[in-house]
């Protein structure tokens, strides 16, 4: 028996010795690792923290290398001493961030053990257990890496810092530099930003709200997420009650106090000029650093504000100043109807101007009104609104041109429905116009912003193809529901689009069919002059160059005719207006040969803009900005006229047959010259109200030679020909024939085709490649014809 116990005792003894040795070895190895991490801390690091000798000011430059803004943690407010900070605010921060602050030596052992168990269970480093002293070390040194090494170094420096500074000094530095959202660094900046008052005037409820923001300044932003901020405030107050900082009576008073946030006019003065542009630069820099370094948004923001960076931008200070001037001029801006509960004037507006050859944003306005704060809501980059007809050139006509249609292709504007969806034209029931215009070219359909032809085209092209085409043009707000939604052809999205993305899509057309994502930053350097990011142009072809030129030519017709524009320009402009069916959004996106400019007008809480009479307000703003830029700089480039050979076509309407002999002259490339055999005078209703508009005749760039039945020659535009003929088709058609036409138009869409005479009479063949002048005599009964 004794012989059996001895080997067992020997085994356990050996095991114990082995475990003890392993433990000692592990402790020694761990100790060696910790010692190595501490030794790796650069000499003088602690002195940098204590003396605050780090050059932590970030400088932003415009495109010419001129300084336009400086960023640092204390810039949006005045530094305050420890004695100026309310006791309630100090206690609120300690209660929610570091309840044992007054008792630990820089690190909280109890909290570290709790965090270790939590991270072990979650298999992550999500719980940091950082004390206020550790947070100050991290914020000062911008140490954001989530690693065991960084944590050890941070804890060591926190312990050393507590030996050099008093608790009050640590709190004072911490409360003057902590990120509290919306560009507010420090409690004084936060007090003015959120409540429009000095920090010493804050109530207990207001102190608790500000202290609660620290955990996640974006999520607990009281301007954007007031419910999140309120719940966090309640947690802070509860913690203060538990720790004995406030009484139960004070707790309930603070819980029930209504928080009244500061209006724009009561906030702190601007720390830098051109706030909407600089704010956009900050946003882009934060995204770049997040992706490049794998850090959180808050950590990237700390790096931008306190990293001593040099950020070089695309800002054209002259253009930005012009945009700010126009946005403050009542001659261009719509009259303020009212101020909302936050003191923001309504209706609002936004604009973005891009150099389409590089994708560089030159100027941006995210709103109107007296801006006395920064990091506000930027409607140009953040708002998502329905685009109305402004989307048509991108969603439908760009794709149609890519699929072989041309500006001269003919489509029937007549009643159309599918699956219960029956689009209506904006001119339906307008005085002097009928609801439909009969046959019209795609150019005319775009000039008139006709909804029915656009939807018909989208149906023919395939709504999923339209959806994918929009994705190619850089739209990021599309949903799965939009993929099968035919109304996206005329701007009916689940949510809408961002103004900057719609402007960038038009920029791709202006740039010969090449899309470049808009950007604000060209280069970022660290405090030592090392380049940490440099913009590289990512170009993506989304249209053939010739088709982009054709679309530009069509968009010039939109502006020249002035039907939906309501004004004129003395320099070349291509563009498109947009108005939603409910009139809650008004747009104009257009471009000169130099720049593209997109403008949106609407109320922040969407409401009909029926009170805005006259010219589309977005057009007025566009014209105000572009007129000033052109007057200062002139037009440096020119639109390239598309060189296209046009094919002839003939179609029959009721009792009338049109014969068109189409000719293209190389010396006048891009101009349609049509010898049209006009219908007999008896077939034209001269008293019809279906007048396309005399402006079309005056503004259409080309004129058509017309030979009438008596052999006399005259000059008349092709649009005038439609005015006298096909555009009034429905008013000249017998009721029985009209019903037949309506039924046919609702159910029949045919392949786009070039019509070519074959040896067999009446035979049609597709010949998209052969697009040079021919004389053709062919009757066509379908409702979309090409070439």
Write up what this structure looks like.
The chain is α+β, with helices and mostly antiparallel strands. The protein is 39% helix and 13% strand. The chain is built from 24 helices and 22 strands. The chain has a five-stranded mixed sheet with strand order 2-1-3-11-12. Helix 22 (694-699) links the parallel strand 19 (673-677) and strand 20 (704-707). Helix 5 packs across helix 6 (148-164).
Mean pLDDT: 78
Percent of residues in helices comes to 25-40%
The stretches of 5 or more residues where confidence is low (pLDDT under 50) are: 646-782
Radius of gyration: 34 Å
According to DSSP, the number of beta strands is: 22
From the helix content, strand content and strand pairing, which structural class follows?
Answer: alpha+beta
Oligomer: single chain
Adjacency order of strands in the biggest sheet: 2-1-3-11-12
The portion of residues forming beta strands comes to: 5-15%
Distance between the termini: 109 Å
Identify the overall geometry.
elongated
Characterize the main sheet: 5 strands, mixed
Count of helical regions: 24
Brief digest:
With 787 residues, this protein is α+β, with helices and mostly antiparallel strands.
